[in-house]
Write a structure and sequence with these properties.
Structural class of chain A: mainly beta
Largest interface: A-B, 23 and 22 residues
Distance between the termini of chain A: 37 Å
Largest sheet of chain A: 7 strands, mixed
Order of helices and strands of chain A: EEEEEEEEEEE
Number of helices of chain A: 0
Order of helices and strands of chain B: EEEEEEEEEEE
Number of strands of chain A: 11
Largest sheet of chain B: 6 strands, mixed
Oligomer: heterodimer
Radius of gyration of chain A: 13 Å
Shape of chain B: globular
Structural class of chain B: mainly beta
Strand content of chain A: over 45%
Distance between the termini of chain B: 40 Å
Amino acid sequence: KAGVTQTPRYLIKTRGQQVTLSCSPISGHRSVSWYQQTPGQGLQFLFEYFSETQRNKGNFPGRFSGRQFSNSRSEMNVSTLELGDSALYLCASSVRTGGGDGYTFGSGTRLTVV
Amino acid sequence: GESVGLHLPTLSVQEGDNSIINCAYSNSASDYFIWYKQESGKGPQFIIDIRSNMDKRQGQRVTVLLNKTVKHLSLQIAATQPGDSAVYFCAETRWEKLTFGTGTRLTIIP
């Protein structure tokens, strides 16, 4: 069965711009979580959506937002990009919410802000 | 504050030897732990998990040990192969989400 699909794989944006990343979870998975991965901070939790509702949120500024659609696909938006937003953004899906049955990750979107 | 950490950031192992990667956690309320493997250019890949009511769980060439007394988790990889080269993360379920450690880079020496 198809895994978690993230698009695009690579993205280069300029400071001040905004960006939207997309994630299609595994069929049947209703939970989608987003993580930011950087060399200095590791994997940091952004938020989780389950059945179109945000269930949990990490410690990121309001410039980071997301949403989930009725087909469980999710998008993540970052507005007013800063150089420090350069990172690998990972999406993970699971059947249940809360991380209690593990996540399946996509390959990520590599965002570079210049 | 609470954290999930790893004892060593890097580990080099001879091909064919066994590898042991360690992880310390601080939240005694965590009830589910996972080891992930991340290869270059890819997302983390599930290796093995264990729940807090268990001490040990085995998979194919991998074993996870959980010591709740000292809040310690370890991943053992038997007969390490070149394909095992990657960064390994432990993760725990805490506050309704998975929280990841900083990772250990495993390098296989031929």
